[in-house]
Amino acid sequence: MTTILEKPGYNPDKQYKIVGTSPVKHDGFDKVTGRAKFAADAFLPGMLVGKFLRSPHPHAILKRIDISKAEKLPGVKAVVTRDDFPEIKAGTGGGDMTRLVMAREKVYWEGHPVAAVAATSESIAKKALKLIEVEYEVLPHVIDPLEAMRDDAPILHDYMRTKGAKGPAAEKKTNVVERLELSKGDIEKGFAQADLIVEGSYDTKPMHQGYIEPQSCIASVSDDGQVDLWCCTQAPWVYRDRLTEILKWDSSKIRIQQSELGGGFGGKTTFYAEPVSIVLSKKAKAPVKMTLTRIEVLRGTGPVSGTASKLRMGCKKDGTIVAVDAELVFQTGPYSGSAFTNAPQAMLTRYEIENVKTVSFEVVSNRPKVSSFRAPCVPQVVFGVEGLIDEMARKVGMDPLDFRLKNAIVEGHKTIYGETFTKIGFVETLKAAKACDHYKSPVPKGQGRGIACGFWFNRGGETTGSMALAPDGTVNIILGTADVAGSRMSMSMMAAEEFGIPVDRVRSQLADTNSLGYNRVTAGSRTTYSSGMIVVDSARKIIAELCRRAAKMWNVPEEGVVFEDGHCRPASSNVGDFPPLSMKDIAAKTTYTMGAICGHSEMNVTGAGPGFAVHIVDSEVDKETGLVSIKRYTIVEDAGKAISPLQVEGQFQGAAVQGIGWALNEEYIYGADGKLQNPAFLDYRMPVASDVPMIDTVIVEVANPKHPYGLRGVGEVPLTPAMAAIANSVGACIGIRPSSLPMSPPRLLKLIEEAKAKGLG
Amino acid sequence: MSRKHHVTTTVNGDEYEFLCETQQTVLDVLRDELMLTGTKEGCATGDCGACSVMVDGTLVCSCLMLAVEAEGKKIDTIEGMAADDELHPLQRKFLELNGLQCGICTPGILIAARALLERNPDPTETEVRYWLAGNLCRCTGYDKVIRSVLTAAAEMRGA
Known about the structure:
The structure holds 2 protein chains of 2 kinds.
Chain A: H1 28-33, E1 48-54, E2 60-66, H2 68-72, E3 76-80, H3 93-101, E4 106-107, E5 113-119, H4 122-130, E6 133-138, H5 145-148, E7 176-184, H6 187-193, E8 196-204, E9 216-221, E10 227-231, H7 236-247, E11 254-258, H8 273-284, E12 288-291, H9 294-300, E13 307-315, E14 321-331, H10 342-346, E15 355-363, H11 378-395, H12 400-407, H13 426-435, H14 437-440, E16 448-456, E17 461-469, E18 475-479, H15 487-499, E19 506-510, H16 527-554, E20 561-564, E21 567-570, E22 581-582, H17 583-587, E23 598-605, E24 611-621, E25 628-638, H18 645-664, E26 695-700, H19 722-734, H20 745-757
Parallel strand pairs in A: 1-12, 10-11, 14-15, 18-19, 25-26
Antiparallel strand pairs in A: 1-5, 2-4, 2-6, 3-5, 7-15, 8-13, 9-10, 9-12, 13-14, 16-24, 17-18, 17-23, 20-21, 21-22, 24-25
Helix pairs in contact in A: 3-7, 11-12, 11-19, 15-16, 18-19
Chain B: E1 5-11, E2 14-20, H1 26-33, E3 52-55, E4 58-61, E5 74-76, H2 89-96, H3 106-119, H4 125-131, H5 143-157
Parallel strand pairs in B: 1-5
Antiparallel strand pairs in B: 1-2, 3-4, 3-5
Helix pairs in contact in B: 2-5
C-alpha cells in the first residue's frame, strides 16, 4: 500500500479548522492536578529499592570487588557487579554501553557505577553500599580534551586508534576517537580572493540538559524471563534493542512502557539505571525501582560536549563569504557518542560558501559520557562562527542582517553533506527579523545588541503508529514517539483536522514497545513531523474504510461515497438520497459490516524540511561586577506551519533560556583531583525566572513541501544561535566579543579590563 | 533496626497517620508512604522547588522538612488545589496559556504561585519572577509561566 510519503505532500489550498489554533493540551489536566504519572510516581507490590555504588576516582583499575558483607545485611535482596553482566568486547558499541552502566576493567570517571544493591528500604540499601569493598589502583586522569590530545596524556583505552587518521598517527595509542574531514572547494584559492580575513579561537564548556525529573525506572522480571520496564525515556525501542544487545535477552521478552517524561532535551536517549534494575530484579526475584538523585544525574548522566574550535573566514569587500577553515574538537567523556559529525555539517549551512575545510576530532577524557542535547554539538560551534560573521559585517560596513542576507542560501542549495534543499525559509526568516519591532527599535543607551543565525536539519526516520475508531465515533491514537513537550496534542489536532471532528473526540497515548513496531529515538526535531505523517496517513486509511463501509450500508459503489466534516455522504444525487452517515453511525455498526475500523502506518520518514532561526538580543553588562543582564530577546524562526502556535512559541522560549544558561552560567567545574565540584543545583546554576526577560517570538511559515500541512521541526533550531547572539550583544556592550563560555562575571571582568586597556568599549 | 516514629498530620483536609524513619522528609512520606505523588522530587536539596507544599499556610520545600516535624501540622499539596470539579484559576490559566510543557515542575510552581497571590493579589511581573525564582523550569523559559500567573491574578481580582 502506498503511503503519503510517495504522494505529493503539502496542499496550499487547504483551509484549516483546528491546525493553527492552540487548544488546551489533553495531557495538561493531569499535569496541573498532580495526577500525571512520571517515572518515579509508580509503585509495584513487593517492590525493592535499588541504589548505585559509584567510583570516587576519575580513572582507576577496578582490581577487586567484595560484596559478601553487603549481601548478608538483613533486607538486602541482591547485589550486582560487572560479574552479573555478559562480557562484550571493549571498544564496540555494545562493549561501551555495558561499561557505561557498570564498570568492568576500569572506572573512567568520578561517579562511574561499580556495583548496585536492591533492598527492602532505601536506608538499608544505603547501608549495604557502605559494606561493599572495592580495591582500586588509581591511575593518572585527564579532564580537558585538549590536554587529552597531547602525546603525554594518560591513555584511557589501550585499544583506541584514531579512526580517519593517516600515517603514523593511525598506529598510535590515543584518546582521539576520530578525525573527520568534511570539505568542499579549495580554501587556498578562496582565501586568495578575500579582501578581509578574520579568525578566532573559541571554547565552550559541557553543560547538563538539566531536566527537572531525575531518571527513574522500575524493572520487574518474571521467573521465565519476561521483563516489564517502566521508565522515562525518549527512546523505548532503542532502549529495548540495546538491552537485548548488552543483556543477551530476547527483545520479545522485554516490554518497555514509557512514563510521562519530565524533560529530556536529548538526555533521556541513553540508559543508565534501566539495565541494572533488570539484573537486580532477576537476581532478587522482585520488582526493583531505581531513582537517581540530582547529584547522580549531574555526576553520572550525559552532559553536553565541551568544544574548542579554531576558525578562519574570508570575505570580499561586497560581503561575499569566500572561504572558511575550521578545526573543531569535541569532548565526549570516556566513550564515543557525541554526535559531533552534526557540527561540520550544520555550522555553516545557511550561507552559500564555495570553499570550506573542516577537520573535527572527537576526544575521550575522564568525564561522564556525553549525551545528546538539542542540536547535538551545533550551538557550540555556531557560537564562534556567528561571531566571525558579525566581525566581517562590521569591518565591511554592512548591517549584520544584510550581510547574512547577502550570503543566504535558497531552494536548490546543495549542502556540504550532499543534500539538495527543496523549499527553505532562511531568506524569509532574515527578512522577518529585519521587519520585526525589536530590530527596528534603537538600541537602548548602555545596552548592546547582537544577532545570530542557526540551522538544524530536522529529522525523520523509522516511525510507526496506530489509530482506532471506537463504536461511539471517537478516535484513539497510539504513538511510538515520546511526548517531550506536547506532541500528543499536535497529533490529536492533525487527526481531528483530517476527520473534520472536534479535537476533544480524539485522544493520543504513548505506546509500550509491544504494541507497535520499531520507532527511532524521539530526538532531532523529528516527532511532530514524523508521527504527524503517520497520523495523517492512518487517518486517511480510516476515511477510505469509512467510505467503503458506507457504500456497503447503502449498497452503492465505493466511488459513490465522499467523506467530509466527519460524515460520509453520497457523492451526488445520482448515487441515491441517503442522509449523511457520521463516523459514529458507521462505527456503531461495524459488527454488521466487516469488524473494527483501524488505521495503521509505518514509514521510514524522509523530507523533514530544514529549519532556520534568527535571534536578536539586547543585553547590559555591569562593568563593576561583570554580570550580564538580558534585557530583550526575540526569536524569529521558520516553523513551516505551526500546528499549535502556543506550543511552538514555548519551544522557542525554552531554548532561548537554555541558551542564556549555557552562555552566562552553566559549566562543569573540576578540581585538580578530577572530581566534579558543582553537582547540585545550587552550584550548577540554571536560569531562574528572575534571571530572564519575556522572550518574544515571530513564527515564520514557509511550508515544508513534503508534509500535508507544511510543518517543520522546531525543537533544535531555536538553541543553535542562542549563545552566539548573546555573545554578540555582550561584545557590543564591552568592546570585545567573548570567545569563551560561560560569560560568567569573573571571565567577563577580565575582558572588560582588557577592553579598557585597549581603549575599546 | 531503628524504631520508626508515629506521626499524625492533616493533608488536604484529611487526617493521616504514618510511620517514618528519622531521616525521612515530608516529601519522602508524601510520595512513598501516602502515595501522594503529585509533589515531585527534582533535587532533594531545596534548590528546584518541585516539592513545594504549604505547611500551616507557609510555603516550604517538603524535601527540607523532616517528616516527624509534620506532627499536628496541616499540609496542602497539589492534589488538593482544585475544589471538587473546579480547577483553581491558576491551574486553568496554565492550561489555557500553555504555562507548562513537560509538567514536572508544574505542581510546585502552582503551589508557590498560589502562595504569592494569597499575600499579593496584584503582583508585578518582577514580583512574580522573584517569587518564583525558587522554582526551576527547564522547558518553558518562564515566559508563559509568568503570563499564566499574571493573567490568573487579574482574573481572581475581577479585573
